Amino acid sequence: MFQKSNVFKRSRFIGLRAKMLIGFTAIFTGIFAGTYYWFYSYASTLALERLRDNLVNTYRIVNAGIDGDSFEALLEQPLSDNGVRIENNPLYIAHQSWLVKITETEPRALAYTYTAGDDPQEIIWIGDAYRTILPDRSPTQFKESYQDEIGLYEGLSQTGVIMTPSQDEWGTWIIAYGPIYNSSGEVVGALGVDFSANYLRSVQQQVRMVVLIIFAIAYLILIALVYLMARKLTQPITRLTEISERIGDGDYNQRGQLAKFHQRRLRDEITQLAAVFEGMVDKVYQREVTLKQQITELKIEIDHSKRQQQVQEIVDTDYFQSLQKKARMMRRNRDESKE
Length: 339
Prior knowledge:
single chain; alpha+beta; Beta-Lactamase; 8 strands
């Protein structure tokens, strides 16, 4: 009989099927994470490029419609002139109308203008489309001072784009800015265009949703396939284990079951293992039979030796010696009487 070692009994058992499920799932998760990162980055980059093109085109259209000399004259207007507020000033109305028209044409765009203040990084708001469209929610007022923190001040000297989305209470935006020139080519102010980046957020959300659905479906298919494949691979191993345990308990009639494994038409590692194991079992069986035979013969020899020893002990006793002496005397007397 064979007995399992205590170490084997104490060790934690994790089936091959579970290992395959865990292994393939881990590999697939790594591949999925890499694919998701690439696809998410690629889709986000495409969305940003598309937004950038729309933003730059919108900025060019707005800038082309602003007359630099009129804007310079607007800078000289006070908040109120003889009781006439700036909102009723023709220059201001014309400027605001153009900015509002852009937003009405492209709802994702919000145009505004500004000029330099006296302090470093200080800008002075001039026009703002939101000021007319949503007067109660407008974040700026005419000639209101603002300390720039996002880079708009650079628009007074150069054209640029801020592609990192910034968020406020009105939404998420990317920004284009650039100078406004008068007829003499002098910078008299700057134009800024905020462009809604909600499209980017929408694309990213759609990517996450689509990838999540694909991921869930792929995971279910993967688990099902791996389970079926693992079951197909582990069934012969499980059967071989059961047969081995029975043989270990002394049931050598199970050797015929081992032959079925390596008699398959398609041979693999399992059939080779079964063939090797069958050969090993045959050798163990033959050794066990030989050992039993040798033990039987040894018992016979031991019994024969014991009998001889017992006879010798009887022969060596004084009583047996006396009997032998009497027997010899009786044979001698008998022979003498015959003569």
